[in-house]
Write a structure and sequence with these properties.
Layout (H helix, E strand, L loop, with lengths): L9 H10 L4 H19 L2 E4 L3 H13 L10 E5 L26 H9 L2 E6 L33 H8 L5 E6 L5 H7 L2 E4 L19 E6 L2 H11 L12 H11 L6 E4 L11 H16 L3 E4 L8 H16 L17 H12 L2 H13 L5 H22 L5 E5 L15 H5 L6 H6 L3 E8 L5 E7 L5 H16 L2
Parallel strand pairs: 2-3, 2-4, 7-8, 7-9
Antiparallel strand pairs: 1-3, 4-6, 5-6, 5-10, 9-11, 10-11
Helix pairs in contact: 2-3, 10-12, 10-13
Length: 480
């Protein structure tokens, strides 16, 4: 049957499934048809899982029995760095080309129990290193609003899958903006949870102290639904926070009931800030004023160092994490005169240009003589940035910021200029450095029809503030 994807959300699809308007199998097949029609041009889905219709049939049985929940039978796409048992998870790299996961990630286990249908795996920047999804061993993913432009990264495939109705939702990972930035570029909602709110077990690590798995969907409510399922304490993940500690953070911020939103006005003077992004953000501020919120100008002097701090800490962790991949057990392997040469040749071919660049940079900042000069100073600054967020949230409920300084840029425009590419993360990295939750929400389009997004940042473990504010904003736009 023909399914109308316009305004189809997790919530509305769930209602249709309960009414019998269509089955899970029909919804899943419709998503697969959308993949067949669009994937050749957009290069989003690396693999449709061979058991996807079997999953759909099981979900249909659960619904017919009157069981299941809001995610039962909902099609979902995974970023190619999240493990699902028996399936390939390559992180879009040749070095892991034939790597099959031996266990389910924590989030997969949670979603499987909720009855989600896993459609397949989405393209990404190799090992999540990039802001454009141009750094994949499997080709560039294109923006569905303009195929000459990037979808953002590194979770570009996950964002495009939702924007082009290849699935109703997806999972990505956010290390410095990798869920929020592509969500803004593709006109969907993307959440980076509090560090420690969602288990990282089963996500191929890029930066251990920064990575968080986050959902992407069409609405704030849909993202909230997924977050409520995947959030939770994982005893097997040392970075996962237990319920007691989460409650300590929440209680610390319960006294904030003053309906104040902080805006770092000075950020609007950032070099390279697009005029339309700036005007859209000003309009969004007026919208929140109209909703009864007091807008307060805040200063974030430490957070202005977030980008250089990020590009020291992240490559250092990359260098350590990727040292285990050698092409011996799986992936691309190149011969050599001895084991060391095989190792060097395999890594040279197996890793792409951007991945090699970050490994080299990380190795450099961790090397003797530079560890104190760079890495330790970056760690000290990180602590100051975390404290700055704590101080700001004593006075305001949340912070409003643009998600990106520009709309989606042209394919190839920044790929040869790493510094220019890194600046695409200028508004998103501070939330990762501070460990606080942030959500990107669509807020309009440019004159050329390219999506624009803004982000809301809240205190640790106060995702409920993000959802409340986000839904208020969405309802305001619906009423217009």
């Amino acid at each position: 049957m023909q399914i109308n994807f316009k305004n189809l959300t997790i919530k509305s699809a769930h209602e249709h499934l309960l009414k019998g308007d269509f089955s899970v199998s029909e919804l899943t097949q419709a998503c697969i048809e959308n993949i067949k029609k669009q994937n050749g041009e957009l290069n989003v889905i690396l693999e449709v899982y061979d058991d996807v219709m079997e999953q759909a049939e099981k979900a249909d049985e659960i619904i017919k029995a009157g069981l299941g929940g809001p995610l039962t039978g909902i099609p979902l796409v995974l970023k190619d760095n999240i493990l699902i048992e028996g399936k390939i998870a390559s992180a879009a790299s040749k070095i892991l080309a034939n790597h099959r996961a031996t266990y389910d990630a924590f989030v997969i286990k949670k979603l499987r129990e909720a009855g989600v249908v896993f459609i397949g795996r989405a393209n990404m920047d190799e090992f999540a290193m990039g802001a454009s999804t141009e750094n994949s061993a499997y080709g560039v993913t294109k923006n569905p609003y303009d195929t000459t432009r990037v979808p953002g990264g590194s979770s570009g495939g996950s964002a495009v899958a939702v924007a082009s109705n290849m699935s109703l939702c997806s999972l990505g990972t956010d290390t410095g903006g990798s869920v929020r930035q592509p969500s803004a570029f593709c006109g969907v909602v993307g959440l980076k949870p509090t560090y420690g709110a969602v288990s990282r077990r089963g996500a191929i690590a890029m930066g251990n102290s920064l990575d968080q798995i986050g959902p992407i969907a069409h609405t704030v409510e849909d993202v909230e639904t997924i977050f409520n399922i995947i959030s939770g304490y994982d005893l097997k993940d040392s970075t996962s926070h237990n319920d007691e500690l989460r409650e300590v953070y929440r209680n610390r911020n319960k006294k904030i009931k003053i309906k104040k939103l902080g805006v770092p006005i000075s950020l609007l003077d950032t070099d390279g800030m697009d005029t339309e992004i700036k005007e859209n953000f000003k309009k969004m501020i007026e919208d929140f004023k109209g909703l009864g919120y007091e807008i307060v100008n805040i200063e974030m002097p430490m957070s202005e160092y977030s980008l250089p701090v990020y590009y020291i800490l992240m490559p250092a962790e990359v260098s350590t994490n990727l040292s285990r991949f050698d092409g011996i057990r799986y992936g691309e392997q190149k011969d050599g005169a001895n084991l060391l040469e095989v190792y060097k040749n395999s890594r040279g071919v197996g890793f792409g240009v951007e991945t090699r660049r970050r490994i080299i940079l990380g190795t450099y900042v961790l090397s003797h003589g530079y560890y104190d000069a760079y890495y330790n100073k970056a760690k000290a600054l990180r602590s100051l940035i975390e404290k700055e967020f704590d101080t700001i949230f004593k006075d305001v409920d949340a912070i409003l910021m643009p998600t990106t300084p520009t709309p989606a840029f042209k394919i190839g425009e920044k790929i040869k200029d790493p510094v220019s590419m890194y600046l695409a993360d200028i508004f998103t990295v501070s939330a990762n450095i501070g460990g606080v939750p942030a959500i990107s929400i669509p807020s309009g389009k440019t004159k050329e029809g390219l999506p624009i997004g803004f982000q809301i940042i809240a205190p640790k473990f106060c995702e409920d503030i993000l959802f409340s504010l986000g839904k208020e904003y969405e309802n305001l736009n619906k009423s217009r």
